[in-house]
Design brief:
With 307 residues, the protein is of the alpha/beta class. The protein is 42% helix and 17% strand. The protein has a single domain, classed as TIM Barrel, CATH 3.20.20.
Length: 307
């Protein structure tokens, strides 16, 4: 596997401070030893409104000069709304993000089945899941779980057809809600039945309800097989051991071994994507993200070497 950096880490959402420019993101990725970057599909990084063809060509050139691949874009889409107009807007978003991915030379767009969203707080500054999550839960009181699953499946099939017109593959992440386990996600992909819709299995999200054993992780990987085209890892990495290694989730080693077994050679991208610590009423700054990103790359490379 190759080690990537997902730009949500530097979106200026979780720490106190502005987002990095995409040019600075490429420089950070190079400095910390990442092979490529995945650009988040929202402002200020990768909303397709801000990625006309000329801008994509410039970023593609910058990435090539830095020796860093732009390997994916990440959609923040929700196909589960009971309101048809909302789902149709999301399809337009996916079509335009697929166009931008093609212009950037990125062959993959990470997608959700459903996504409540994230909001910003001001005191202290930073992202929060609760408010958008409460709205999502209220809205979905007016439909059944089966209806939401069906809407997601239908929209993903259509979005995959649109992505295919640009030579792009959608990678459905095993992320709640709606797809709460890897089995839910695999079922969604199989039912959508498109050559342009595949899987993004992330080890921490293989089950929303329990920590899986090494054998259960292997089972998920074997079921995914050639459908697996993208992955992520997370956590905070703030210290090195005396021997120079970095401590992280123990489930990543069996996951990496399982990925080797199925022949997966794509990216596993680091994401720092949760509220960060607050001290004396102030959120930590970008230096916290820098430390995590630098050590995360080292952690995953040691896992891959051991696997």
């Amino acid at each position: 596997m190759k080690v990537g950096l997902y730009s949500i880490t530097y979106l200026g959402l979780w720490y106190d401070g502005p987002a990095l420019s995409l040019e600075d993101l490429l420089a950070r990725a190079k400095a910390y030893g990442y092979d490529g970057v995945e650009i988040d599909g929202k402002r200020p990084h990768g909303n397709p409104l801000d990625l006309p063809a000329a801008r994509c060509r410039e970023l593609r050139r910058r990435a090539a000069d830095a020796g860093v691949e732009i390997y994916a874009l990440a959609a923040n889409n929700d196909f589960s709304s009971p309101v048809p107009e909302h789902r149709e807007c999301q399809l337009v978003y996916l079509r335009e993000l697929s166009r931008a991915a093609a212009d950037l030379g990125a062959g993959v767009v990470r997608v959700f089945a459903a996504w409540p969203g994230v909001t910003r707080t001001h005191h202290p500054p930073g992202g929060a899941y609760k408010f958008a999550g409460d709205i999502w839960q209220h809205t979905h009181r007016f439909c059944t779980d089966e209806e939401a699953f069906d809407w997601c499946r239908e929209c993903l099939a259509e979005a995959a057809r649109l992505a295919g017109e640009f030579g792009v593959t959608l990678a459905l992440q095993n992320h709640p809600p709606v797809t709460n386990t890897w089995r839910d996600t695999l079922s969604m992909v199989r039912q959508a039945d498109s050559p342009h819709l595949k899987l993004c299995l992330d080890a921490p999200l293989l089950s929303h309800f329990e920590t899986l054993t090494a054998e259960q992780i292997r089972e998920a990987a074997l079921e995914a097989g050639p459908l697996q085209v993208l992955s992520h890892f997370g956590g905070e990495y703030l210290a090195e051991r005396p021997d120079g290694t970095v401590k992280g989730g123990e489930f990543y080693l069996p996951f990496a071994r399982a990925m080797n077994e199925i022949g997966y050679g794509g990216y596993i991208g680091y994401e720092l994507c949760h509220p960060l610590p607050v001290s004396r009423g102030r959120r930590v700054g970008v230096e916290h993200a820098d430390t995590c990103a630098r050590l995360a790359a080292k952690f995953m490379r040691q896992v891959l070497a051991q696997a």
